C-alpha cells in the first residue's frame, strides 16, 4: 500500500514538473486560436467586419513591470468601429510577448498607437486603426500573430517550437495554427509509412 502511494506521488510530481512554460504557452495559444476562429466564423455568419486593435494594457489590469499589450475587439457597425464589450481582450500571460506580422514585417505597436492618437485638438475623437480584420464576406487582412516566451520564461525550454507559436490568418479568413498544423502533417505522414 505504501509502495503504491509513493509510486502515484512520484508520477504526480513528474507530471507537475514536466508542465513547463512551453506547455503553458501552447495552452494559451490554443485559447487564442479558438478566439480568432470564433471571430472569423462570426464575421462570416453575421456579415460584419470584426477587428483586433492593439492597445496598451491598463496598469491596473497588469502585474508586469513594463508595458504590456493587449488586443481589443471591434466591429464595424453604423459606419464606425465599435468596441465589442462582450468579448474578452486578448492579453498574453506574463510569460509571453505578443507580436503581429503583416506581410512578414513586424508591426510596431507604439507606432500603431501613435497613428490612432494623432490629432490637433482635445475634442477630436481617437481614430480606431485595426491591425487584424475579418471581413464579413469571409476574407481577412492576412497576418501572423506570434506568441513568444519572454527571455526569462524561456530558460530551460530547449525546443524552439516550444518557445514560439504562430497563428496565421490568410486572405480568405482561414485561421491556421502553424505548429499544430505541422504536428498533424507529421502524424499523418508517419501513419502512412
Give the beta-strand count: 9
β-strand percent reads 15-25%
What's the average pLDDT? 82
Q: What is the H-and-E element order?
A: HHEEEEEHEEEEH
Instruction: Give the spatial strand order of the biggest sheet.
Output: 5-4-7-8-9
Report helical residue fraction: 25-40%
> In the CATH scheme, what's the topology name?
minor pseudopilin epsh fold
Radius of gyration: 20 Å
Helical/strand content category? alpha+beta
Shape: globular
Distance between the termini: 44 Å
- Per CATH, the superfamily is minor pseudopilin epsh domain
User: Low-confidence parts lasting 5 or more residues at pLDDT below 50?
Assistant: 3-7, 11-18
Number of helical segments? Answer: 4
What's the number of structural domains? 1
Report the sheet with the most strands, covering strand number, pairing sense and barrel closure: 5 strands, antiparallel
What CATH architecture label applies?
Answer: 3-Layer(bab) Sandwich
The level-1 CATH class = Alpha Beta
Amino acid at each position: 500500500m505504501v509502495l503504491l502511494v509513493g509510486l502515484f506521488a512520484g508520477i504526480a510530481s513528474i507530471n507537475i514538473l514536466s508542465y513547463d512554460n512551453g506547455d503553458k504557452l501552447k495552452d494559451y495559444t490554443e485559447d487564442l486560436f479558438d478566439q480568432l476562429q470564433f471571430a472569423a466564423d462570426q464575421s462570416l455568419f453575421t456579415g460584419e467586419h470584426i477587428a483586433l486593435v492593439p492597445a496598451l494594457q491598463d496598469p491596473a489590469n497588469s502585474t508586469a513591470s513594463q508595458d504590456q499589450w493587449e488586443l481589443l475587439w471591434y466591429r464595424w457597425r453604423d459606419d464606425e468601429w465599435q468596441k465589442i464589450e462582450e468579448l474578452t481582450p486578448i492579453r498574453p500571460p506574463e510569460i509571453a510577448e505578443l507580436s503581429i506580422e503583416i506581410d512578414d514585417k513586424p508591426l510596431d505597436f507604439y507606432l500603431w498607437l501613435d497613428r490612432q492618437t494623432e490629432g490637433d485638438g482635445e475634442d477630436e475623437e481617437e481614430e480606431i486603426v485595426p491591425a487584424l480584420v475579418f471581413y464579413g464576406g469571409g476574407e481577412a487582412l492576412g497576418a501572423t500573430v506570434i506568441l513568444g516566451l519572454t527571455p526569462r520564461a524561456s530558460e530551460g525550454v530547449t525546443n524552439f517550437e516550444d518557445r514560439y507559436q504562430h497563428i496565421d490568418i490568410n486572405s480568405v479568413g482561414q485561421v491556421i495554427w502553424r505548429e499544430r498544423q505541422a504536428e498533424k502533417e507529421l502524424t499523418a505522414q508517419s501513419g502512412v509509412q
